[in-house]
Amino acid sequence: MQRQSKIILAVSVLALGVLACQAVMGGGGGTPSVSPTGSGPSFGDLISSDDFSDGRWGTGTDTDSSIEYTNETLQMIVFKQNLFVWSSPPDDQDYENVHMEVTVINNNTDPTTAFGIMCNQQVIDDSFYYFAMTPAGQYAIARAAVGQSDFFLTNNNEWSFSDLIAENASSYRVGVDCGNGALTLYVDGQRVDSVSDSTYTNGGVALFTWSGKEATSADVSFDDFEARELR
Question: What is the DSSP string of 114-163?
């Protein structure tokens, strides 16, 4: 899955926000601090949290997309089909062995819209892992590398469906484990899938939205972000 990238820099009070686009395709109410069901890693001290009540993450608007603070959330709207946009937190630090969660609000977005969390972003912005899901019930855990096609580590490099993802819900609590050689996706406290990969061991994090190939709209908002130590 080949990606073509355009980067727009937007500086907020304390943060450098990065917006990028990529040429690929692209519900359960969410509440903070959902403990995933089943056995698995335990979570330690809180590293970072944000309720998006002030403008610290990267923002910016152009003809293709908009990332702005709205009603104490971080809203991402994509006007162009098949576009990947992201925003980074204000701490600009590398994370290693981390569990993250965020509530994603579905603003009547097209069901093919993908959204989620990025981790272990390298100095070269196009190298990272990302955990994606859609309101249609699809998901993927993927590795991006500069100069290469993205590789879906789940389901033989294809999108997969999960009965654990409620279709067209008003919101989702998306969680990920990123570390110790494992990548795990949770939705509304349920473990959806997990894979092993150790290409990247630490790096930056971000939230993203990805419009579908034939999407009529891509509009979601993020709220109540948390990052904790992964033990």
Answer: EEEEEEEE-SSTT-EEEEEE-TTSEEEEEEE-TTS--EETTGGGS-EE-T
